[in-house]
Amino acid sequence: MTAIPEPQAKTYPRNRRVAGGDPDKRHQILEGAHAVFTARGFDAASMSDIAAAANVSKGTLYVYFEDKERLFIALIEREREKQKQGMYEALADDPDLAHALGNFGERLVKLITGGFALSAQRIVLGVAERMPELGREFYERGPMQGAQRLADFLIRRAELGELAIEDPALAAAQFVDLCQSTLMRPRLFNALRTPPSEAEITRVVGAAVTMFLAQYGVRKPG
Predict the structure, then answer these.
(1) Which of 40, 85, 138, 162 might form a disulfide with 44, Cβ 3.0–4.6 angstroms?
(2) CA distance 219 to 222
(3) pTM of the full predicted structure?
(4) Which residues of 154-167 are buried (b: 16+ CB within 10 A; e: fewer)?
(5) Rg of the Cα trace of the chain?
(6) How many CB atoms lie under 10 A from the CB of residue 220?
(7) CATH no. for residue 60?
(8) Residues whose CB is less than 8 angstroms from the CB of residue 220 and which lie 6 or more positions away in sequence, other chains included
(9) Beta bridge partners of 163
(10) 222: pLDDT confidence band, cut at 50, 70 and 90?
(11) Same domain (yes/no): 125, 187
């Protein structure tokens, strides 16, 4: 029996990019999408609008993103990545538990009360009922991932004897909610048109750290 040859992997000339693989073009498209989504919202934006704003053809746009939903998620991910690493770094190696929590909380609040993050949340909330997969993806890649990273940090500090926590996931969610108190909802509903001040963020997050450690902190003897 004649052996069937294995399919050969497609190769490309060294100087030719795979379709949809040019990072500069992708960046150009995302910049155009950012401008359109911010100005018009998700529903009013069209792929034609985005192509025009990015100065690319619609054909090129669809090579990179097959629909508006995936383009929107990619844009959210790009904006999050710019900021969330610093937030997680605040938890890395700080020996002072209260200081680490405070840094994390302040960076979190600055992220979620910033202009683009708020626009993204409003857009997702507006379409989540008819597009639940978009809402789920936004939640899983953002709030849920952040809470999981914080829960992992709390587990490590509990193993060091600094915290007494039975449910780290619940404790992480509680701390995140405490940090947002009085700051997030007024911004989300546009009752406050500008982000909270550094002093106000410090005040609210400091109170959150105090309350959190009063519940879960282990008091050292003496």
Answers:
(1) 40
(2) 9
(3) 0.78
(4) beebbeeebbebee
(5) 22
(6) 7
(7) 1.10.10.60
(8) none
(9) 217
(10) low
(11) yes
